[in-house]
Amino acid sequence: QGFWAACVGVHLTSSQPASPAMEPDEEGVITLPSGRRIVQGYWDGNEFVTKGAKGREIRLPYELHDHCGFRAAELKDFAWAFLVSDILEDGLITTREVRRCLSRLGEEPTDKVFLKVMNEVDPHATGKHSFQQFVKVMSHFDRSMLTEDELISAFKIFDKDGSGTVDTIEMQDLMKKLGFPITPLEAHAIIQEADDDDSGEVSFQEFAAKILANQ
User: Fold this and answer.
1) pTM higher than 0.70, yes or no?
2) CA–CA separation, 160 and 121 (whole Å)
3) Each residue's pLDDT expressed in tens, for the chain with a length of 215 residues
């Protein structure tokens, strides 16, 4: 699922409850007078249950009340990258680890850009960052989701024989074109995951359905 999810790559607390007049919308979001959007959520054992930008429920190992416009699949990827760096398992990572998390997610900002983002997210230079802060960091980068039209265009370009299917070699070229370079082995794994009829190839319908389902 990691490859497919890649296709589509201030810990907020408050001492005062939201005003009773502020009712959550259909996605469970409360918009404060300041314009800040708070997503309702709750702990279920060791998982925090909340929703992504499109209202899809997601379970995370960290508390999150502002999805910053990201969908559930993206937040899941962010949580994985953050978890790898949360060595002490205290829900906090260092600024250096934030940089490593960005690399895991395919983001390689220049030192100047990284410093600017961190100054905005951590103005007091605490050097420690929660998952909520990390999601806010990610909101500074372009994580545009692929549309079906974009997938169709890319698929047609690499469906060289016009057969309506893509094999391992074509898949590797396709993913590179979409901005996600992968190895031949990874391309083969993607083919296998979506190849429902074991033909060794993936039809556009299989390809698009798998990617769009994970956005």
Assistant:
1) no
2) 46
3) 444 444 443 233 333 343 444 555 555 555 655 565 667 789 999 999 999 887 889 999 999 998 988 888 889 999 999 999 999 999 999 999 999 999 988 888 999 999 999 999 999 999 999 999 999 999 998 766 566 666 777 677 667 778 888 888 887 887 777 777 888 888 888 788 877 778 888 887 777 776 666 55
Strands (E), 116-155: 128-129
Q: Are 4 and 182 in contact (CB under 8 A)?
A: no
Element (H, E) at 7: helix 2-7
Tell me how far apart the alpha carbons of residues 205 and 151 are, in angstroms, rounded to a whole number.
10
Write phi, then psi, for 124 (nearest 5 degrees). -95, 5
**Side-chain-facing half-sphere of 205: CA atoms under 13 Å:** 3
Q: How far apart are CA 1 and CA 136, in angstroms?
A: 24
